[in-house]
Write a structure and sequence with these properties.
The chain is an alpha/beta fold. The chain folds into two domains: 224 residues, Rossmann fold; 94 residues, Rossmann fold, CATH 3.40.50. 40% of the residues lie in helices and 14% in strands. The protein contains 15 helices and ten strands. Strands 1-2-10-7-8-9 form a six-stranded mixed beta sheet, sandwiched between helices. It has a four-stranded parallel beta sheet with strand order 5-4-3-6. The longest helix is centred in the middle third of the chain and has 15 residues. The radius of gyration is 21 Å and the shape is globular. 53% of the residues are buried. Its cofactor is pyridoxal 5'-phosphate. GO terms for molecular function: L-serine ammonia-lyase activity; pyridoxal phosphate binding; threonine deaminase activity; threonine synthase activity. Belongs to the threonine synthase family.
Amino acid sequence: MSTAQAVHRPWPGLIEAYRARLPIGDDWTPITLLEGGTPLIHAKRISEQTGCTVHLKVEGLNPTGSFKDRGMTVAVTESVARGQQAVLCASTGNTSASAAAYAARAGITCAVLVPQGKIAMGKLAQAVMHGAKIIQVDGNFDDCLELARKLTADFPTIALVNSVNPYRIEGQKTAAFEIVDALGTAPDVHALPVGNAGNITAYWKGYNEYHRDGLSDRLPRMLGTQAAGAAPLVLGEPVKEPETIATAIRIGAPASWNTAVEAQQQSNGRFLAATDEEILAAYHLIARTEGVFVEPASAASVAGLLKSIEDGWVKRGSTVVCTVTGNGLKDPDTALRGVPPVTPVPVDPMAVVAKLGLV
C-alpha cells in the first residue's frame, strides 16, 4: 500500500478557504470551481512610472475569467441549498459566463438576459457552451436587470444571481481578505473599475471586516473609476444611454449605488471618469509593460490611478492595489482593432531579423 503524501496542498476554493467568514450553512455543499486565490502581481514598470508600489489583483485568472466567480460560488451554493430550480441574471457578459458555469456545475438551469448588441462575443460563447438559455432583450443592461428583478419576484423558484443578491457580495469580499493576507495589511489606495458597483461595495466590506478583527491595521481609500460615457456615480445621476468601449462597465444605473457611495465616503475615496482613450491607453500599458492581458473595463482601475497621480490625489510612495477584473480573451475584437495586416517574409533568417529591425 502506498504511503506517498501529497507534496502540494491545492487551493480549496474560496468557500473552504474563508468558510468561517462567510454565511454558509454547516450542511451546505459548496458549488465550486476552485475560484479565488488569484495572484497579486507587483507591477514593476507601472510602479516606476507612478512612483508608487503598485500591485495588480489579477481576477481574470478565476475559472471563467473574471471576478464574478467569487460571488457566484456563494450565490449558487446558497440557491442550491434552498432548493432553487434555476438561476437568472442580467448581464453585459461576465456575469452570464459565471452564472452559466456554476449552474452547470450544480446541475440546475441558468437563464441569461443580455442587452441587444452590447455583449463581447467571448463572454457570450462561454454562456452558450455552459448550456445557458440566452434571451436577448431590446434594451440596455439596466432594462435587463429591472426585468430580471420582476421575473424572480414573480417566480420564487428562480434565484436572481446579480450583485443585488447579498451572497454575491459575500463571495466578492474575499478578494480583500486575500490582499491583506498577501501584503500583511491593507494598501493605502485600492483602485478598481465601477459598473454595477457591487465590487467596490464588496471590497470595502472585506477590508472593514479584517480591520474590525485586528487582521489589518488600516483601511484603504477606495478609488472607483467609471467610463466617461457611463459615469452615473461621478455625475450624481443615472445615465439613460450609457456608451463606452468598456462593455463590462457600460451601466447607467448601478444596482449597488448607495453602498458604493458609502464605500467612497467612509474611506475618504473618490469616483472619477476616464475616457475610452484613457482606458485603452491603460489597457495597452498593462499588457505591454506587465505581461497581463485584461479586458478593456479592467484597465479602468489603472487609468484612474494614472489620473489620480497626475492631479495629486494619490501621493507618490503610496502602496496601491489595482483590481483588473477580467481576462483579455473575453474581448479579442478590441485587442485586434487597428492591427496592421500580416505580410509574409521569405524562409530566410536574415529576412526575419530585418523584419524585427535588428539590422
